[in-house]
Each structure stands twice: as structure tokens, then as C-alpha cells.
Specification:
Blueprint lengths: L27 H25 L8 H27 L1
Helix pairs in contact: 1-2
């Protein structure tokens, strides 16, 4: 019996490389910003209410808002950063 196709000694090509799956995004920093921003906002609003005695329009309302506005802004920025990082 004669074989019409002679055997070939061609090398077998190597299999394609297997790349690892992409790493899921790390959400730890987003949670940190969101939780710390919420805490700062709650504490600032609580402090403003405590200083004014619950009367935000009264005598010390403007002063309390003026003094609390930097921490209100900081808490808002932290909350915004956290929500942006968690959306990704």
C-alpha cells in the first residue's frame, strides 16, 4: 500500500498567547470619598444647626453658614469625587 501523501515534518505553530482577563476597577477609593464626604456634610450641617439653635434664619444663621461653607464645599467635593469614581 502506497500512500499518495508523503508525511511532512512541518512544525506545528505554537498556540496563541492567552492574556489574563482585565482587572476590574478598584472601587475602594470611590467608597472612601463617598463615605467621608457624607460624614463631613452631616457633621457640618449638624454643627451649623447646633450653633444657630435650630433657627437658621435668626441672628447667627449667616455667620454659621459663612463659617461652615468651606467644610460644606469640601464635603460636597468629596461626595462628588466618590460618586464619579463609583460610576466607572
Amino acid at each position: 500500500m502506497s500512500d499518495s501523501n508523503p508525511p511532512t515534518n512541518a512544525p506545528v505553530p505554537p498556540p496563541p498567547p492567552v492574556h489574563p482577563p482585565p482587572k476590574p476597577p478598584d472601587r475602594g477609593l470611590g467608597w472612601f470619598f463617598a463615605i467621608s464626604g457624607s460624614i463631613v456634610l452631616l457633621l457640618t450641617v449638624g454643627c451649623i444647626v447646633a450653633v444657630t439653635g435650630g433657627d437658621l434664619i435668626g441672628e447667627y444663621g449667616g455667620v454659621a453658614l459663612l463659617c461652615g461653607s468651606p467644610t460644606l464645599a469640601l464635603g460636597g467635593v468629596f461626595l462628588w469625587l466618590g460618586s464619579r469614581r463609583l460610576k466607572r
